[in-house]
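hey so u asked for the seq, here:
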Amino acid sequence: MVPATIGVTITKALQDSPQMQEAYDKEPQVRELVDTARKLEGLVRGAGLHAAGVVIAPQPLTELVPVCRSKNDEIVTAYDMKAVEKLGLLKMDFLGLTTLTVIDDALKLIERKRGSALDMSLIPLDDAETYEKVFHRALTSGVFQFESGGMRDVLRRYKPVSVEDLTALNALYRPARSRAA
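ran it, structure tokens below
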């Protein structure tokens, strides 16, 4: 009876589903269930740990937020990322990307085979052929932030021609992440 709407609340479900509202009004068990669910709605289901999330604070975290230990004995905040940000603390994600290791390995292989290193700073960021053959066709498997199906659809539709275009598309596609950065 709950509408299949992303982010629907129990109150909104009752408003949008006459069948659910009727069951709530007429059946004591349904009323008890819905009232209990309302009390639980929005509570954190369980502690999570972001593998690369780091909270940066101007003083020891123990003076600012409750902390606990993870199952691996790491010190973690007892607050979720939104609460940490509301307190004015900085949460950064430091990602260890396999792709960077692959690129580093490729550069070392090129240097070993050619006898000279490839200078990455000389690779042009405005190469039209790269944009056409890679980004316009969304051949971006393994390209961080551009490999999801939705993002690949965006790339095919908007056909970026610059790094600035890629930056803007990423920010528009993932607005919550971009705002926090």
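The CA atoms of residues 14 and 21 lie 5 Å apart. The beta strands are 53-56, 67-69, 75-77, 90-93.
lmk if thats what u needed
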